[in-house]
Design goal:
The chain has about 230 residues and is an alpha/beta fold. Helices cover about 40% and strands about 15% of the residues. The protein contains eight helices and eight strands. The protein has an eight-stranded parallel β-barrel with strand order 1-2-3-4-5-6-7-8, surrounded by seven helices. Strand 2 (about 25), helix 2 and strand 3 (about 55) form a beta-alpha-beta unit. The longest helix has 16 residues, at about 70-85. The protein is globular, with a radius of gyration of 16 Å.
Length: about 230
């Protein structure tokens, strides 16, 4: 059972690692769904923690359909993130029909080299998610898909998440559940779906708000619950 925590600062990263996180997703502008953080922040976080740091590569929040100038920026960001020593990147690109843009994705993955890759919640804008898993899994560099099973929060989409988990078992990718995750619904959701990786954001912060710091006690509790579920 893997626990991924969203970090937006060095303090977040240190607190998350100290309280039991297995991996970080580093991003900025959470009010916009998460954008590429500064190179300075990437370097500082990588140096501050020992757990893997995966950095979101998202140049703007308008759409997941990127024009050439967007892709040029993303390619440059991936190069800088790799040089900073991050373990992975978090990306997602769709075409005009809101399907996986395989051509653009291939370009980004080529730049990523040996870094780990998560396909982010652009996935939740896709109508046929089972088909999309097959497309994404055709790229060996991608290890997981971050999804809530659609537009609703993950705890409200257990049926779809189970379908995705079952589908993924025949592929090289795994399902990472995020959006709306909470300590109160974690156990029920994991048991209903077979999830092995979960992604927490605001629910592990003081007042459950991205405007507040991480609450280490909450992460410790979530980690303990995941360990019990693993037994």
């Amino acid at each position: 059972m893997m626990l991924e925590i969203i970090a937006t600062s060095v303090a977040d990263a240190i607190a998350a690692e100290r309280s039991g996180a297995d991996r970080l997703e580093l991003c900025a502008a959470l009010s916009e769904g998460g954008l590429t953080p500064s190179l300075g922040l990437v370097k500082a976080v990588v140096q501050a923690v020992d757990i893997p740091v995966h950095v979101i590569v998202r140049p703007h929040s308008r759409t997941f359909q990127y024009v050439e100038s967007d892709l040029v920026v993303m390619l440059a960001d991936i190069r800088y993130i790799q040089k900073a020593g991050a373990a992975g990147i978090v990306i997602g690109v769709l075409d005009e029909d809101n399907k996986v843009n395989a051509e653009a994705l291939s370009r980004l993955l080529q730049e990523a080299g040996e870094m780990k890759v998560t396909f982010h919640r652009a996935f939740d804008d896709i109508d046929d998610q089972l088909e999309a898993i097959e497309v994404i899994a055709s790229f060996p560099q991608i290890q997981r898909i971050l999804t809530s099973g659609g537009q609703a929060p993950a705890p409200e989409a257990a049926e779809q998440l189970k379908k995705l988990v079952d589908k993924s078992r025949n592929t090289s990718v795994r399902i990472l559940a995020g959006n709306g995750m909470s300590p109160e619904t974690l156990s029920v959701l994991v048991k209903a779906t077979g999830l092995e990786e979960v992604h927490f954001g605001s629910a592990v912060r003081v007042n459950r708000s991205f405007m507040h710091p991480i609450d280490e006690a909450v992460i410790t509790g979530v980690k303990s619950e995941l360990m019990q579920l693993r037994k």
